[in-house]
C-alpha cells in the first residue's frame, strides 16, 4: 500500500527540542525587550536564550513578528490575571493582586508604555482591548462593592499602575522588587475607599 501523498499529509508537530527552543527564545526576547526596549539586537536575545542567533531568526524572521509575540505574551499574561481576579469572591484582594501584577509588569516592560497598535498588528490590538475591558470590569466591581474610591475612572488604573512601578534606577538609586512592591502598596492605600463609604443603594 502506498503512503498518503505528501501534499495530503498533515503537518508534523514540532519536535520537543524545537518547542523548547521556541519557548526559550520567546522568554529571552521578552527579557531583552523589557531591559533594552524594542530595538534590542537578535544577538542579545540569542545570548539570553543560550541558542545560536540563527535559531532566533528562524523563529522570528521579521522584527515585527518578534515584537508581536512579546506583546501578546505580556498582554495575555495580564489578561489571564485579570480574568482570575474577576472570578474571585472578594473584590478588594482580587483588585489588589491584579493591580500589583499590572504595576510590576509595567515597570519591567517599557514597551507597554508605547503605542501598542503601532507596534503590533490586529492580534495585539485585540489583546489590548481584552485586557482593558477586564480592567474596567474589575474597577467597576470594586467600586460597586464600596472598596475602591468612587472618583476613580477605570482609565486611571493603568496610569496609576505605571506611576506605582518603580524604575530600574532613580537618582542613581537602584530599585529592587521589594521597593517596587512597597510603592505599589502605598498607591493602593490611596486608591482604597474610606471604610465609612456606604455601598451604593444602602444607607
Keywords, separated by commas or semicolons:
203 residues, mainly alpha, Arc Repressor Mutant, subunit A, 2% strand, globular, Homeodomain-like_sf, HTH tetR-type domain-containing protein, HTH-type_TetR-like_transc_reg, DNA-binding
Notes on the structure:
This protein has 203 residues and is mostly helical. The chain folds into 2 domains: 15-61, Arc Repressor Mutant, subunit A, CATH 1.10.10; 62-203, Tetracycline Repressor, domain 2, CATH 1.10.357.10. Helices cover 64% and strands 2% of the residues. The chain contains 9 helices and 2 strands. It has helices at 16-36, 42-49, 53-59, 63-86, 91-108, 116-119, 122-144, 156-164, 177-191, and strands at 169-170, 173-174. It has a two-stranded antiparallel ribbon with strand order 1-2. A hairpin with a 2-residue loop joins strand 1 (169-170) and strand 2. It is globular. It starts with 15 loop residues before the first helix and ends in a 12-residue tail after the last helix.
